[in-house]
Amino acid sequence: MAPPKASFAAANEGLKTITNTTLGIIENVETVVTGFYQPDSATGSCTKPPTVTETAEGSEQKQLDALVLARDAATLIKAHSTKISLFIINEPFTPSAISTVLRQLLEGPIPALASAVEQCRANIYTQLVQRDLAWKCARLLKELREFISRIPQDGKVLPQNQRTGTPGAAKADKGSIVATGVLWGLCDEIVGFCNLGVAGYLVHKAENFRDTLKDVLDELKEWYEEQDEQDDDDDEAAGSDEDGDAEVEHSDGGEGPADDASNAHTATQAMLDSFMDSQQQIPRGDPQKIRPRLDSTLRRLRLTVLLFSALIKRRLKTLPKLPLRSETDSTAVSRVDEVMPLLRSLTDRFNSLAVAFYELDSAEINRYMDECFFDAFAVAELLAKPWEGQKDEFTDWVAKFRMEIRKD
C-alpha cells in the first residue's frame, strides 16, 4: 500500500533537509581532517586544525585507540552507504528510510572518523601514520559527500543512466553504482591500514621502498650489461671497418657519383646514430669516466638494499608496542620520524641517480651519488643502536656497512 501523498511529500522534504545538513557537516569535517596532513603554504609543515569534538578542560579522558576507531567508523560507513545505494535505485522510493541512515551516519561513523584522526597524534603514532590516516580519511569523506549528493531530490529512484553512468563520461558522471564501489574501496583501504597497526604499516612502507630500490638496481644492472654488449659490437664493427679500408686502399677503381652518395648517406646516418645513442650508450673510451662510477653505484646500491632488509628485520619489526601509552617516552617515535623520510628520499634519489646515468649527465651523477650515500650513511647511523640498550648484532653490522659504503 502506497503512503499518502501528503506524508510522502513531508518525508521527501525532510530528506532534502537532512541531506543538505549531512553534506554541510561532512564538508566541515573534511576540512578539519585535511588540516592534519596538508602542509601550510607558508611554513611547509602541517598545522593542527581546530578540534571537532570538545572536552571539558582538565577532565580525565580515556585514550582511545585511533586506528580501531577509524577501522570501525570505515566499516559502518561502508554498511550505511550500501543501504543508501540500494534505497536510491529500488522501487518504491523511501525517503524516510534514507533519512534514518543519514542520521545514523551523523550520529556515529562521521564524528568517529574525525575523532580518530584527532586522536592519532604524531608523538604517539608517528608522523607518517598520522598523516596517512588523515589523508585516507579525507579521501573517504570527499567520496562520501559526492555519493550523498546523488540522493534524488524529486522523490523518485535514480534513472538508469544515473545508476550506471555514461560510457566515456567525466568522473562526476560515473553513476551511483561505480560511486558506491569507489566508496567501498576507500573503506576497505582504511580497514586494511588500521589492521596493520603502527609497526606493521611502517614495515609495509619500508618494504615498498626496498622493493623500489631493487627495481632500480635491476634496471641499472641491465643497462650496464647493455653497455658491455654495445662495446663488443663496436669492437667487431671496428675490426670489419679496418678490413674494408685495407681492401679499398689496394683496389684499382676510383669512386664514382654513386659511391659519393653512398658515403655521404653513411656519414650522415652515422652522425644521427651517434646523436641518438649518446643518450643511452656510454661513448667509446668513456671520456667522462661514467663506467667506474656506475660500478661504484651498483656495489653501494646492493649494500643499501641489504641495509633496508636488515633494518626492517632488526629495527622496525622489533619496535616497542605503538601507539605509546605515555607521551613522555617517545624516543622510539622520534627516531622513526627521522628515519622514514630518509628512506623515502633515499629511494627517490636513487631513481634520480639512475636517470642521470641514462642521460650520461656527469655533474648530476656526482651530485646524486653524494646525496644517496650520505643518506644511506645517515639511515644506518640513526638506527645503529637498538630501541633499548646500546648495542646488539645489528649495531656491529652497521659498523661494517659504514666502512663498506665509504669505499669507492
UniProtKB/TrEMBL annotation:
It comes from the Eukaryota. GO terms for cellular component: nucleus. InterPro entries: GCIP-like, GCIP-like_N. Residues 72-225 form the Cyclin-D1-binding protein 1-like N-terminal domain. It holds the Pfam family GCIP_N. Residues 225-262 are annotated as: Disordered. Residues 225-246 have a biased composition (Acidic residues). This is Cyclin-D1-binding protein 1-like N-terminal domain-containing protein. It comes from Coniella lustricola.
